[in-house]
Structure to design on (532 residues):
């Protein structure tokens, strides 16, 4: 009896930690997605492709240099440039035409998925983490828990705090917030909104690219992950409210926890909970938990 | 009449989809204030937006201080020296009062944040409040203040007294008079006839997407027939 109770608590603690780490990854991916969505009203359906491509690039750079941090930064930088290029070359020309932008981004994601499949094939990749992250950390109740997964929580906190500081304590953050509120008015006050758009697209894509490296280190990379993280980002942003970083955090937490607890305790209905949350939010607070009504 | 032409609009046509909203608007504005009056839906806001580049012009030309701005992006047009105070105020809910002012206070000139706080003590009191937490009158003052901080040569104001309590309408009118005496050009769209005539002597009446009449405040005030015809307002009892 006593051992049974002991095992249950341990399982609960591990599942909770797994949920937290998954939420961390969802948050890093979705934070860029929600910024882009909130400011430009672009539903970037290629966001998952940026995640996966960033992961593959991180894998290649990591394999070539043996340095995980370099892999993370290079993948982030390359994806940031790719995001800026997408905004300049494609989405910028369709300003204000939300549907056209969404369709173009779907096209990009399909082409990207095929190209990645052609180049990296169907096998599963894992980015090598520095060896001290392959150890296990002792956590009360849970026992030993993977240091790599804990790293994920740390990174999400860094990204969250970093974005908060940029958005609330810097001039560029002030411009972004004003643009999320009313981009036409911001531009009519003489602010170069197209350049702000390119910058925010680069930040969002860079975060997704880095998330790909982190996800590829702690979990793994394979075809189909792009669609998975796009879907999770979409749900997180719908639940949290578009354009809101705290909303992305709350949304990521809810979605990842529901998914993880669901899979652990009621495997048959695992995915149902995520959609139940989404339906409930849409029914009672269509603008999302932290979103403003438009 | 002033000698310097700040804004010149010539034969401007604007469409929303298939609906033809501005039918060849022409007007000039200098440092002397101009009020544009006219009933609901006559195209006053559309004219302001077209000048700012927020809606595209189908044909016609817009010049700011002799420079053609048709087809430029709104930020480029604003940088030629236009300050825009939009209908409905459109302050940013996510920005504090102070941030609104910091946002636009980037140019050198006579308008500084300190001066704004002197003229609008209410904004100084509420400097850390969010834009959404302000009253209608405070929002209007903020919208005017952030446009002034661009140190524009011409201010375009779209119904700044709409929806305000009478005492606040008077405050805003006094502010507009003060701005007038600062040498800033003023194009004032205003449905409140008393405010329009108190601020500007030169009046343009818009009707069905054109400037139907150019007149003076004193002439229109005297002529109730004209008022009824163009504005649908009159002190005449039937
Ligand atoms: N975005 C839009 N799409 C389609 N039609 C529009 C749009 N905005 C305005 N209109 C129409 O264009 C015409 C002119 O509108 P506008 O807002 O310029 O008038 P206004 O003179 O400013 O009116 P008000 O005094 O009520 O502010 C109206 O018939 C209006 O219904
Ligand atoms: Mg109007």
């Amino acid at each position: 009896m006593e051992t049974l109770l002991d095992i249950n608590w341990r399982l609960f603690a591990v599942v909770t930690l797994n949920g937290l780490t998954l939420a961390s990854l969802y948050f890093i991916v979705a934070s860029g997605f929600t910024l882009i969505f909130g400011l430009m009203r672009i539903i970037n359906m290629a966001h998952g492709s940026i995640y996966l491509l960033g992961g593959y690039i991180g894998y290649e750079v990591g394999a070539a240099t043996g340095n995980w941090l370099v892999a993370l930064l290079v993948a982030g930088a390359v994806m940031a440039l790719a995001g800026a290029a997408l905004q300049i070359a494609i989405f910028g020309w369709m300003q204000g035409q939300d549907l056209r932008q969404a369709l173009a981004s779907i096209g990009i994601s399909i082409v990207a998925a095929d190209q990645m499949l052609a180049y990296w094939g169907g096998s599963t990749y894992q980015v090598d983490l520095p060896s001290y992250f392959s150890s296990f950390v002792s956590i009360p109740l849970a026992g030993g828990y993977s240091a790599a997964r804990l790293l994920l929580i740390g990174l999400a906190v860094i990204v969250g705090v970093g974005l908060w500081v940029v958005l609330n304590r810097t001039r560029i953050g002030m411009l972004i917030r004003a643009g999320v509120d009313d981009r036409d008015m911001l531009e009519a006050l003489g602010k170069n909104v197209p350049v702000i758009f390119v910058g925010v697209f680069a930040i969002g894509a860079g975060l997704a690219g880095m998330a790909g490296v982190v996800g590829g280190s702690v979990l793994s990379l394979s075809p189909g992950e792009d669609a998975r993280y796009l879907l999770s980002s979409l749900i997180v942003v719908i639940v949290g409210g578009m354009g809101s970083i705290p909303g992305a955090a709350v949304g990521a937490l809810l979605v990842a926890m529901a998914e993880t607890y669901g899979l652990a305790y009621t495997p048959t209905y695992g995915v149902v909970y995520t959609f139940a949350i989404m339906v409930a939010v849409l029914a009672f607070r269509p603008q999302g938990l932290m979103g403003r009504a438009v | 009449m002033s000698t310097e032409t700040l804004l010149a609009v010539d034969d401007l046509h604007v469409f929303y989809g298939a609906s033809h909203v501005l039918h060849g608007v022409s007007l000039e504005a200098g440092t002397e204030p101009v009020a544009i009056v006219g009933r609901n839906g006559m195209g006053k806001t559309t004219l302001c937006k077209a000048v700012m580049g927020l809606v595209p012009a189908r044909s016609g030309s817009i010049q700011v201080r002799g420079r053609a701005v048709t087809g430029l992006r709104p930020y480029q047009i604003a940088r030629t020296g236009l300050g825009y105070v939009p209908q409905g105020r459109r302050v940013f809910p996510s920005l504090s009062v102070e941030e609104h002012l910091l946002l636009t206070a980037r140019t050198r000139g006579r308008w500084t944040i300190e001066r704004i706080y002197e003229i609008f003590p209410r904004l100084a009191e509420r400097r850390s409040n969010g834009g959404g937490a302000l009253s209608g009158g405070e929002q209007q003052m903020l919208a005017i203040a952030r446009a002034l901080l661009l140190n524009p040569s011409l201010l375009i104001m779209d119904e700044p007294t709409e929806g305000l309590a009478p005492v606040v309408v008077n405050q805003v009118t006094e502010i507009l008079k003060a701005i007038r005496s600062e040498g800033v050009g003023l194009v004032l769209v205003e449905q409140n006839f008393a405010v329009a005539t108190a601020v500007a002597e030169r009046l343009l009446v818009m009707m069905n997407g054109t400037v139907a009449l150019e007149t003076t405040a004193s002439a229109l005030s005297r002529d109730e027939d004209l008022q009824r015809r163009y504005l649908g307002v009159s002190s005449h009892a039937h």
In short: Chain A touches chain B through 20 residues (CB under 8 Å). Chain A is about 75% helix and 5% strand. Residues 29-236 of chain A form one domain. Chain A has one domain: 29-236.
